[in-house]
Amino acid sequence: MSEICGLVFGSFRDDAPDLESYLGPQVVGGIRRVLNRPARILGRSTQVLPNNWKLYSENTKDTYHASILHSFLTTFRINRLSMPGGIYIDDTGGNHFSQAKLDYAAEDADYKREGLRSDTDLRLEDPSVIESVDEYGDSVSVQILTIFPSMILQQIRNTIAVRVIRPRGVEKTELDWIHLGFADDDEAMTERRLRQGNMVGAAGYISMEDGCVGGFVQRALRFNDADSGVVMMGGYDAASQPFRSSEAAIRGFWKKYRALIGD
Amino acid sequence: MDDLTVRLGVNELIAAYVDCIDEDRLEEWPDFFVEQCRYVITSRASHEAGLPHGVVYAASRGMLVDRVTALRRANIFEPHRYRHIVGPIRVEQVDATVARAHSNFIAVRVMHDGEMSLFAAGRYLDRIDMTSNPYRFIERLVVLDSQKIDTLLVIPL
Question: Chain B closest CA to A59's CA: distance in Å?
Fold first, then answer.
């Protein structure tokens, strides 16, 4: 058993490495960045996914699908696709985090200005669902961090959550969401997190779609030769990089998985 | 107000609400609420533990309108409908303008291919404004018996 920032990890292996060596220094930094003060649980929920757990793992490692699948932000003209960011992957490939940055002040000003002049574009009636503050002071608006094999630490604006992947059979996975705030949050900050919470979880404007897309892939795979199908977009390594349009983190997952399971 | 009038008004509100959802007239759904409303879907476990997070957390009618717009225009999901069954409603007058109501419900999910499943069971805990006709919800707390939600929740409960 071992603990970092209030997250408790365990292993049945006698020769398990110490936790920080297992995570790698960059991923440790990613955890410490988000959980930088005592946390408080705001709620829990479980999303039952109609697919194998590895499809959800791929989803969390994949940086492409967000702007293709999750059209909430583009439909309501909230985000720019050119947000700077990067991917950081540990040496084994199993753990990673991706970051995207946002100019919070410019977004706020833009949304208010455009809200006044546009009447044909789709606009949010109540933009408080996205009104966020740069609580870490580093402009990072999204950080998705994964720990092999089964944990995700999420910061999407001011929504902080731990997701735990529980395989329940070949075609079923449970995703436990633990929604977090911090002990020093004031009432306004808690309310902000609760409203932004509409973006994540089983009913989240963004996360609901991750609940069904794995099932679509799983069903489609049956029609491939020998029940397997691979789409590769190019590249072989699984190294950190200063941009997000890449499959490197997915390759990292499979490198780690194959190293443990064998071909 | 006389007890029977209140009961009829509350009963009509709750019946019309599920009818609106099940018959896919979701654009009318926000009109069942006052402007400064609360609509929260949570679980029994979270509710009893006093945890404030909602799977859906709306603190204004505008947030309900946005839910419907996102469902119609943005979100990707397999087409489906619900059939709500609401049990007997217990009504209590708080004062001359506000009533409190509790009711049990189940919602069957009917997928586009006809596959049916029991999607949700739980309680509606309502605070209701009686100053308008029809009545409207000030607060509707949807407390699900199970913490598990199959695949996704996009149509309101």
Answer: 15
